[in-house]
Amino acid sequence: MKIVGIAGSPRVGGNTEALTSIALDEICKEGLETELISLAEKKIDPCDGCGSCRKTQKCHIKDDFETIYAKMVDACGIILATPVYYGAATPQMAALISRCYAHRQNRPFENKVGGPIVVARRAGQNFTFAQLMFFFMIQGMIVPGSTYWNVAFGREKGEVMNDEEGLRIVRNFGRKLAWLAKKLNS
C-alpha cells in the first residue's frame, strides 16, 4: 500500500513540503510506503477544455501531469497540500486537480483515502481547505478526520515548525489516514 503526498508549493523545501513530509513520516511509521511529490520545478499547465481526453483517457498537453497522475492512480491514498495564494490553492495545485477531474471517466480515485493539508500565513486557509476537500468529495474518496482541520501557519521557510498545534494535527492526520488505508485495503 502506498500513499502519495503532493506538495503544491512552487517553493522547494518550504513549509508545505515540510508538513507533507511530517504526515508521510507518520504514515511510514504505520508500515505503509509513501512518496513525496513536489510540484516545485514541475510544469503542470491548466486544462484547456478541449475534451479530447474523454476519448483517449490521456491529456494532449505535454508536461509533467501524466507522470504525477499515474502515481496518484496507483496509490491507495493521496494527500494534497498547498500554501494559500490569495485565498486559494496555488495555480500549480489548481491545474493538477482540474486536469484530474476533467478527463477521466472511470473514477480512478473512487474509495481511495486522502485529505488536504493547508499552510497559511495568516488567513484564507478555510477557503483553500474547502477547495481541496471538494476534490476529494467529487472524486468519491474517503477522508479521515484529525483533531481539527489540517492547517498550520507560517510564511518563511521553516516557520510552520513553530506551530505546535498545526504539527500535532498533521501528525494525527497522517496516523488516521494510515489506519483508514489499512482498514480499507485489508
Number of strands: 5
What's the Cα radius of gyration? 15 Å
Helix content: 40-55%
Query: What sort of overall outline do the alpha carbons produce when their principal axes are compared?
Result: globular
Summed up:
The chain is α/β, with parallel strands linked by helices and 186 residues long.
Layout: helices, strands, pairs:
Elements lengths: L1 E6 L7 H15 L3 E6 L14 H4 L8 H10 L2 E7 L7 H12 L10 E8 L4 H14 L12 E3 L10 H21 L2
Parallel strand pairs: 1-2, 1-3, 3-4, 4-5
Helix pairs in contact: 1-6
Written account of the structure:
The chain is an alpha/beta fold and 186 residues long. The chain has one domain: Rossmann fold, CATH 3.40.50.360. 41% of the residues lie in helices and 16% in strands. It has helices at 15-29, 53-56, 65-74, 91-102, 125-138, 164-184; strands at 2-7, 33-38, 77-83, 113-120, 151-153. A 5-stranded parallel β-sheet has the order 2-1-3-4-5, with helices on both faces. Helix 1 (15-29) crosses helix 6. The N and C termini lie close together (10 Å).
Keywords, please?
five-stranded parallel beta sheet, 5 strands, 186 residues, Rossmann fold, alpha/beta, 6 helices
